[in-house]
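Re: [ENG-882] Designed sequences occasionally contain unexpected residues at chain ends

Forwarding the minimal case from QA. Structure tokens:
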């Protein structure tokens, strides 16, 4: 699983997104950003930032 913490992107927010693929993480992030942070679009710069803070989560 891949994991993205909204906080790592720079928001004061505890939302954590998990998905099997980076594409799915981006989809969830876009939806979350739109719903919670009033961002209707994610900029190229933000995409780059997100890409650097996505982690692989070890399965227990
Ligand atoms: Zn957030």
């Amino acid at each position: 699983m891949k994991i993205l913490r909204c906080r790592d992107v720079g928001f004061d927010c505890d939302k954590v997104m998990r998905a099997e693929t980076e594409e799915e993480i981006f989809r969830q992030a876009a939806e979350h950003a739109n719903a919670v942070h009033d961002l209707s679009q994610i900029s190229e710069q933000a995409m780059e930032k997100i890409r650097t803070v996505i982690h692989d989560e070890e399965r227990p």
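QA comment: On inspection the terminal residues look reasonable. The first strand starts at residue 2 and ends at 5. Proposing we downgrade this to a documentation issue.
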